Amino acid sequence: MKNFCGREKKKLMGNVTYLAFILIAFLLPAPNVSSQICAVPGKDGPQTISGVVNTYYPSPASASTSGSSIPVGAVTNLGSSLTPIAAGDLLLVIQIQDAVITSSNNSNYGGNNGTGRGFTSGNAGYYEYAVATNSIGIAGGTITTAQTLSRTYQSTAATSSSGRKAYQVVRIPQYSSATISGTINAATWDGNSGGIVAFDVAGTLNMGGGTINANGSGFRGGLGVTLTGGSGSSSDYRGVSTNGSGGSKGEGIAGTPRFTWDGLLGNTNAAEGYPNGSYFRGAPGNAGGGGTDGAPSSDNGENSGGGGGGNGGIGGRGGNTWNSNLTVGGIGGGTVTPAANRLVLGGGGGAGTTNNGANATASGGAGGGIVVIRAGAISGTGTITANGSNAPDSNPTCCGDGAGGGGAGGSIMVTAANPAGMSGITTSARGGDGGDTNVAIVPHGPGAGGGGGVILSNSSFGSTNVNGGPNGTTYPSTAFPDPAYGAQPGQPGIVNTSINQASIQGTTSGADCVPVLTVTKSTSTPTVNLGPTGGTATYAITVTNAANKAPATQLLISDALPQPVANGFTYASTTSVALSGGATRPSTVNPAAGSINPQWSQFTIPAGGSVILTFVTNIAATVPTATYQNPAAATYLDPARTVPTGTKTAVYDSATSKNEDVKIVGPPNISLVKNCTVPANCTTSPQLPNTDLTYKIDFSNIGGVSASSLVLVDSIPGNTDFKLGSAAVSVGTTGLTFVIQYSSDYDSNNPTLATWTYTPVSAGGGASAGYDRLVKAIRWRVTAGSLSQIAPNNAGSVTFISKIR
User: Fold this and answer.
1) Residue 545: what pLDDT?
2) Are 286 and 311 in contact (CB under 8 A)?
3) Percentage helix, strand, coil, to 5, in the chain?
4) Are 80 and 186 in contact (CB under 8 A)?
5) How many Cα atoms within 13 Å fall on the side-chain side of residue 90?
6) Of 193, 219, 195, nearest to 140 (Cα)?
7) CB under 8 Å to 414, separation ≥6 — which residues?
8) 3-class DSSP state of 339
9) How far apart are CA 105 and CA 232, in angstroms?
10) Rounded to two decimals, what is the model's pTM?
């Protein structure tokens, strides 16, 4: 029995500081890229975020779920967001409690390994992402998922042979981009749900100098309950809460004790929560053990300290009993090997034994929560914390009592497709401090420090802290050579910066699900011969989304047509729209005829789907002969947008492909140049009578296609006589064969009335011998049946002689 009055309190920190970081190798499941499932990356748009962003759905009292349906209870966590689940939402399904322990009343308690702590098997901490395919209000119901769950999730009440099992489903916001403003909090685990901060950012997460806080949001500590003695012995590892002595175990993966402390209030739970009782020093799973009193059957006054909770590092052992100095303080909670698909809440600290205190006195601290973030990239500076809570100091009004153990650090995992920006983040998942005991002369058991937590990532943070919490001390310390009085600090936790984002089970991160579009273009009219009214060209644009990606939505296809001259190419009509692989066209808007930048809307293209758009363009007759390239683009809602309507564009680069090239060939265009070449280019002035003048007409095709049925007509100059036999043809490379014809009635005012049957004769019409005055015009016409076309750029000439009278 204690009769010492309290003296001045002096806090003495543990004398050992753990700065070590343990990096372990994890056996991670190989990514199953062939069956990748995507939700709707960026579904919640760009946001500035703070407060609680998650909605927590607890498991029903009794459920076992696998397959693609998940029963959930109503949202009851007072700190939860109230955003209900909608189809396309991203979910986190996690088994919070499920660990098999040995419940023998000896050192094999827990993990059956002689340490009095741990567990033998179980699925606690395993989780996966899933996609909801239906809507569920906050009243709960059954969620259906797009994929089959990879494991079975269970919810069962505690029995005499098994601790409680519980899962929860958390709605995960899918931001396109996000900026933290102030603090994002986890709703505290209330025994059914909460304790988690989780969100997905398809684009960039800007830390914004803010904080993500899951401190003390994990498993609850054991409640310090004032007892005055009962059954049990000082060697007990477990016992029922009604035995009248000892301290409560903390809460952890193996179950929930009858009495818990959440940092503000004590909670009395309906069930004992652990097999064979929730009291005394044995540490179930990762929960800290409660103190075992040195005189349980008398007055419960030989007060020992509670054990620290565990996670990445084991919790410390609680301090020794008063007076009898027995090492029966609560054993520290065990570790849970973390992985990319397994994270647990930090274990709650065990309560110390007390016979003089109130609820807070001797209670254990709560463990840290879970933070899971996936992003495309991270920028700015900020802090992420999931620290275990410090246990309260034991300071009853009259006398010293045992103190509780600190909560274990929680679990933090951050991955990014471009992880370089993690260097601006400070992270901490340290264990909570053990409680101090305030006594006068004889020491009482201080609380143990909580074990360090877990920090995982795929790159290095600016700093990490997974130190174990320091043990409490009994003071004034000057009175005792060993202020720790048997209490131990928690052990350091785990840091691993080599996590493979693809190893996270279930639905892929938004950043990896962003659509990847390929735009190609081709033409079925690689050559277009223009006529007097122009021509047409036919194009096909194909837009394809890569496999294992989210759908591209609100997609618009556009084509900037070539414009060598004003309105050179204009949209005419759409001949077909082929949708495949699940592609749809929610609204049909085709371009207006005559558009030079036609646009088609609106499409949705899922993973592996495609759209093939075929259309016709009109080409003006004035378009020059050349080969024209023609790009195309597909614009869609950007899952990584920074403004609500932000878009992203995939393009077809016409400069790197000839598939869509169209060669425009203009109509035939015959150039004629007539000269008087003899004598001396007829430049002598004046020319004298009886002078022969030689005329030459050069012709060439300067158009885009061959000219057919070529006919050249030239009239004999006035006051001259045609020289017989002088009409000739020089065809150069044209390969043409001409027939030469003459007219004696040609009139340039009515050329179509001329006849071409006249045969020149010597002295005809009174001309001198060898000349014919009756010849009025000469016609050079391609001979029927010969090569009747003059190809582009080919040329020739015709000549004749007439004499000045």
Assistant:
1) 98
2) yes
3) 5, 35, 60
4) no
5) 31
6) 193
7) 371, 372, 373, 374, 375, 378, 384, 422, 425, 427, 456, 457, 461
8) strand
9) 11
10) 0.83
pLDDT in tens, 212-229: 999 999 999 999 999 988
Could you check whether the bond before residue 476 is cis, i.e. omega within 30 degrees of 0?
yes
What are residue 692's DSSP bridge partners?
A: 803
Higher pLDDT, 500 or 388: 388
Taking the C-alpha atoms of residue 360 and residue 225, their distance in angstroms, rounded to an integer, is 9
Both tokens assigned to 28: 């991670």
Rounded Cα–Cα distance for residues 496 and 391 (Å): 28
Strands (E), 411-467: 411-418, 425-428, 437-438, 454-457
30: Cα within 13 Å, side-chain hemisphere: 3
Torsion of CA 275, 278, 281, 285, to 10 degrees: 60
Calpha distance 337→285 (Å, rounded): 12
Q: How far apart are CA 199 and CA 375, in angstroms?
A: 9
| Pair of tokens at residue 747 | 């009139």
Contacts 24+ apart (CB under 8 A), 673-682: 673/697, 673/698, 673/699, 674/698, 674/714, 677/799
**Assign residue 161 a region: left if phi > 0, alpha if psi is -120 to 50, beta otherwise?**
alpha
Token representation of residue 790: 């003059």
Question: Over the stretch 109-163, which tens digit does the pLDDT of each residue have?
Answer: 999 999 999 999 999 999 999 999 999 999 999 999 999 999 999 999 988 778 8
Strand partners, 457: 414
pLDDT single digits (tens) 50-75 = 999 999 999 998 999 999 999 999 99
Nearest-CA neighbor of 416 among 459, 354, 469, 359?
459
Please tell me the distance from the alpha carbon of residue 803 to that of residue 790, in angstroms, as a whole number: 32
Cα angle value 338/343/345 (rounded, 5°): 120
The conformation of residue 570, written as its DSSP 8-state character, comes to E
CB atoms within 10 A of CB 209: 14
The residue written with tokens 């075929």 in the block is: 614
Q: Where are the beta strands (DSSP E) in 581-734?
A: 599-605, 610-619, 626-628, 632-637, 647-652, 662-665, 670-678, 692-701, 707-708, 711-715, 720-723, 728-730
Of 712, 746, 715, nearest to 729 by C-alpha is 712
DSSP E strand stretches across 353-447: 370-379, 382-385, 411-418, 425-428, 437-438
Are 284 and 274 spatial neighbours (Cβ–Cβ below 8 Å)? yes
Give the mean model confidence (pLDDT) for residues 533-554: 96
Pairing of strands 382-385, 211-213: parallel
Question: Is 78's pLDDT higher than 90?
Answer: yes
Would you place residue 356 in the very low, low, confident or very high pLDDT band (cuts 50, 70, 90)? confident
Q: What are the tokens at 552?
A: 């591209």
Give the whole-angstrom CA distance, residue 394 versus residue 318. 13
> How many helices (H) and strands (E) would you count in the chain?
1, 48
Which alpha helices (H) appear in 709-773, and where do they start and end? none
